[in-house]
Amino acid sequence: MNRIEQVREVVDSILGDIINEEERRYAYIHLYGVAQAAALIAKKRNENLELSIIAAMLHDIYSYKNMDAANHAHKGAVIAKEILTELKIFSGEEIALIYSAIYNHSDKDMIGETFDEILKDADVMQHVFYNPLFEIKAHELGRFHNLKNEFGII
Predict the structure, then answer these.
(1) What is the pLDDT of residues 56-105, one digit of tens each?
(2) In CATH, what number is assigned to the domain containing residue 78?
(3) How many domains does the chain have?
(4) CA–CA gap between residue 34 and residue 40 (Å, rounded)
(5) Angstrom distance (rounded) from CA 115 to CA 122
(6) Are the CB atoms for 119 and 102 separated by under 8 Å?
(7) What pTM does this model have?
(8) Domain encompassing residue 70
(9) What is the pLDDT of residue 154?
């Protein structure tokens, strides 16, 4: 089994423990949706496709594991690092890259490392395209505008 599928197994087991059916459904939609958006963005930017998908699958793991969004990016980076370390299939450098992306993904107003930006943009893309009739959050407008230009979306 490849590394993406191994991480998905861990994530699915965590999401499966969510008691509220609607919350559990949204968690699956969000994490898998962000992973697909991350794949698209990484491919377009010639970045690491596999690690982008894995970071996206894990980016909100703290929120869904604890049903608490407070400081979820920083706390989630720690959980993601633990998961990746326990799997024993990632190098220290790969774990550090994923850790950074997750740790920084809530800072949508800040421009960070190239790999970190994939996750931020993928998160915004999933939020906007989950239901295009919803109003775009103010802190995501600039990123979405840039994504529209990058991908030629009118």
Answers:
(1) 999 999 999 999 999 999 999 999 999 999 999 999 999 999 999 999 99
(2) 1.10.3210.10
(3) 1
(4) 10
(5) 11
(6) yes
(7) 0.96
(8) 3-151
(9) 75
